[in-house]
Design a protein that fits this description.
Oligomer: single chain
Number of strands: 4
Shape: globular
Strand order of the largest sheet: 1-2
Number of domains: 1
Radius of gyration: 14 Å
């Protein structure tokens, strides 16, 4: 979102806790990101983190910051 001359970015704190729907548990953002990247990098289809939309969203927010 751009307003005037300033661009606002969504900030993600790695120590924040989110509700992970596939795991049905509260998980720190850092663990979510690590699990998502590991599952997709190694093609671990058995992992609930493989192609997880929540992990993808967090990954994208961090990549843009």
């Amino acid at each position: 979102m751009v307003r005037g001359d300033m661009a606002y970015k969504t900030q993600v704190r790695l120590d924040a806790v989110i509700l992970c729907k596939p795991r049905r548990a509260e998980v720190p953002v850092e663990k979510c990101l690590d699990s998502y990247v590991e599952a997709n990098a190694f093609g671990n289809k058995e992992s609930c983190c493989f192609r997880c939309p929540h992990g993808q969203r967090i990954r994208n927010m961090i990549a843009r910051s």
